[in-house]
Write a structure and sequence with these properties.
single chain; 722 residues; alpha+beta; GIY-YIG endonuclease; Nucleotidyltransferase, domain 5; 5 domains; eight-stranded mixed beta sheet; five-stranded mixed beta sheet
């Protein structure tokens, strides 16, 4: 725990202007981001007597080891920069709403020749009509299933549509009347687009006229004694009414509004949001957050607005946003929302009428969500705390291991040897900090040497980061002029890690533009994010027994690291091994600590196996054409399309290869030589005629596609995977 006075800046150093500030811990990791109308007044609140601070604020300032700030021109700029930095650094002490997902929308792709109705998530695309968001994808599918009877719009993927067009046979929905089958030209593109527009009209709330028209058609059919048609229209009307019941009118005048309610206690807060479009509730979503510092309801609302609209396109912000309390000050937030929408947004507290009644409903939902969360969370928190305490006691650690890293080695009979590193913080997965490694130091199968290499590489990175950040001046505070402050761009380029130590589920890490970042001793301020190797664990777990544990401990000893505990979990008897011990530590089978170690180990094994299989599949998909210099994917596909297979391409003459568009004679000669060298029985090239001469036995050779001939397919050999 640090003494805040050790890094407290002098009052005269802090500007009395709007800005954003960052608290960092001893590892230079950003732990809190905040904004202020006056940086001097706001930061002074953190450096008062510790006894006067809120307990969670006291924990934050004693965890921090430095503070820095950036000056901006207006409070709106401060709001934007604060949101960008929270997204970039993921600070542990900031308000973070959990259970937030990319909520699904019902989308109609009006930008296509044959519009498609589908469920879509994520960023919105130009030319696509969106309805929602909905709380569950199944709610969308239920509604669509009812409406397809009346509006048989295409719902199939591009591949299914193309296949149906090629074969002349529609899919099942086309046969049962829930698709108008434009793929086989049952309707024209214009007629299908009219159906899609009618579908959109119905979803926007223009339902009364359409249902009255169907009722009139039903009566006319009955009068003309076309009873089958009348019955079909009757069923269509019932389907539409059933779909409408799912979206009852709650606000008159086709109002578009979002209603946000907050239920809170001293430790946590639950936020519920109702999305009302065209006067109907189109979706509902909810978040829960820990209150890591003393925070008002208005501040919680502000964070919820940032979370809700920060990454959405402008049309996602409705004309009205109704809240239980206004942020202080409210003007910058309202200006920011109006900028996101492109027109004025009303941010206010409903006082009476239908909107107030609906807000009370949203508040009841928030209260129920908080109660339900606490019921689940109570046992969860207790269990995780007990698990960490049991591990600390069993391994004789000074404190509970709040950060655990686990390593596993994976290979297939010595090929494609890889390793994984997974991270658990406070007993929960931290997937953004997962890493994966390719073993580079040697060839073949040796789990002990592989473990030594991986631990060495990981903690060399840690020492390098520690040494680099240690060069920063103590108590350093950064003052950046507003003209040079740059907001992090969500679409920043990405950089592949040259050491092949990849982040989880990706092969690259964000490359942050630091061209305008402040310099200290020649170093750019580009660290602070938790997505680095600079943050050390309290416990390293390896998948294995004594040999693997000894290798990991030896790697740490060689690097001079003596403050990180090491243990191993053997699969056979689930024994916990410690370095230098002849006997394992045996935790009870009912132990929460053992269960947590098993979860960590199994997650590391899953992540390693996934990476290993990905590498193996990529190798199996290789082709002899991959080794031809200067031959790209387009020309490779053109060659295969022209000849039909690599085998037929290998048998072709150089003149025949030159007939492929884009292939010159020099390239054709290179291809012929490369295929000749890759052939199992290497043929010779007749330089006089340009023909490839094959041996008599070449017809019995399997077609070379880059996949090694072996006993059993990959799936049949998974039992041999490590």
């Amino acid at each position: 725990m640090a003494d805040p006075s050790s890094y407290r800046p002098k009052p005269g150093q802090i500007p009395d202007s709007p800005g954003v500030y960052r608290f960092r811990d001893e590892h230079r990791r950003v732990i809190y981001v905040g904004k202020a109308k006056s940086l001097r007044q706001r930061l002074a609140n953190y450096f008062q007597d510790l006894a006067g601070l809120h307990p969670r604020t006291r924990t934050m300032v004693t965890t921090a080891a430095s503070v820095e700030w950036t000056v901006v021109s207006t409070e709106v700029e401060a709001l934007q920069l604060e949101y960008s930095w929270i997204k970039e650094y993921d600070p542990r002490f900031n308000v973070k709403y959990r259970d937030d997902k990319s909520y699904p929308y019902l989308a109609v792709t009006m930008n296509e020749e044959f519009p498609r109705v589908q469920v879509m998530r994520g960023h919105k695309k130009k030319g696509v009509r969106y309805f929602g968001p909905y709380a569950h994808a199944w709610a969308i599918r239920d509604t669509v299933d009812l409406l397809l009877r009346v509006f048989p719009v295409r719902t199939c993927s591009a591949g299914v549509f193309k296949n149906a067009s090629r074969t002349g046979r529609p899919c099942l929905l086309g046969y049962i009347g829930k698709c108008s089958a434009p793929c086989v030209e049952r309707v024209s593109a214009e007629e299908h687009r009219e159906l899609a527009e009618e579908f959109c009209d119905f979803m926007t709330g223009r339902t009364g006229t359409y249902i009255r028209r169907l009722e009139q058609q039903m009566m006319e059919a009955a009068d003309e004694m076309e009873y089958e048609r009348a019955a079909r229209l009757r069923d269509d009307i019932e389907a539409l009414k059933k779909a409408m019941e799912k979206n009852a009118v709650v606000l008159a005048d086709a109002t578009d509004a979002d209603l946000i309610a907050v239920a809170e206690d001293e430790l946590e807060a639950a936020v519920q949001i109702f999305h009302v479009r065209g006067g109907r509730v189109r979706g509902q979503r909810g978040w829960v957050t820990d209150k890591v510092e003393e925070i008002t309801t208005g501040a919680l609302v502000e964070h919820a607005l940032q979370q809700l609209y920060g990454e959405e396109t402008g049309d996602a912000v409705p004309k009205e946003v109704l809240v239980p309390a206004l942020p202080d000050p409210v003007e910058p937030v309202q200006e920011w929302l109006s900028g996101r929408r492109g027109s004025n947004v009303s941010l206010r507290i409903p006082q009476r009428g239908d909107k107030r009644a609906l807000m009370e409903t949203v508040e009841r939902n928030a209260q129920q969500a908080l109660v339900l969360h606490k019921t689940k969370r109570a046992s969860d928190l207790t269990t995780r705390s007990r698990a960490l305490e049991e591990i600390a006691e069993a391994l004789d650690l000074d404190s509970a291991p709040l950060r655990i890293e686990c390593y596993d080695i994976s290979h297939l009979q010595g090929d494609d040897v890889v390793a994984s590193m997974v991270v658990f913080e406070d007993g929960l997965q931290r997937k953004s900090e997962y890493r994966r490694f390719q073993i580079k130091g040697f060839e073949g199968q040796d789990d002990v040497r592989s473990m030594h290499e991986v631990i060495t590489r990981r903690f060399k990175r840690y020492l390098a980061e520690k040494e680099r950040t240690g060069e920063w001046a103590d108590g350093e505070n950064t003052l950046t002029d507003a003209s040079s402050a740059r907001l992090p761009d969500a679409s920043a380029a990405r950089l592949t890690d040259a050491s092949s130590d990849h982040p989880a589920d990706a092969s690259s890490e964000p490359l942050t533009d630091t061209s305008s970042a402040p310099l200290t001793n020649g170093l750019k301020d580009d660290d602070g994010r938790p997505k680095r190797f600079a943050y050390p664990p309290q416990l390293v777990v390896v998948d294995g027994g004594q040999p693997q544990v000894a290798a990991a401990q030896r790697a740490l000893d060689e690097l001079g690291i003596d403050d990180i505990a090491v243990c191993g979990l053997a699969k056979r008897l689930e024994e916990v091994w410690l370095p230098g011990e002849d006997d394992p530590v045996v935790l009870p089978r009912t132990s929460e600590g053992l269960y947590l170690l098993q979860r960590v180990r199994d997650e590391a094994h899953r992540f390693a196996i996934t990476y290993q299989r990905t590498k193996r599949a990529k190798r199996f998909r290789s082709s002899p054409l991959d080794d031809v210099p200067g031959l790209g994917e387009t020309r490779k596909q053109a060659l295969i399309k022209h000849f039909g297979s690599v085998k037929k391409l290998r048998a072709a003459t150089i003149d025949q290869i030159c007939e492929v568009p884009g292939i010159g004679r020099k390239t054709a000669e290179t291809i012929a030589v490369a295929l000749a060298q890759a052939a199992p029985a290497a043929p010779a090239v007749n330089t006089a005629t340009g023909e490839i001469m094959e041996d008599e036995e070449s017809d019995t050779t399997a077609e070379t596609s880059g996949e090694p001939v072996s006993a059993g397919a990959p799936d049949e050999r998974r039992g041999q995977e490590r």
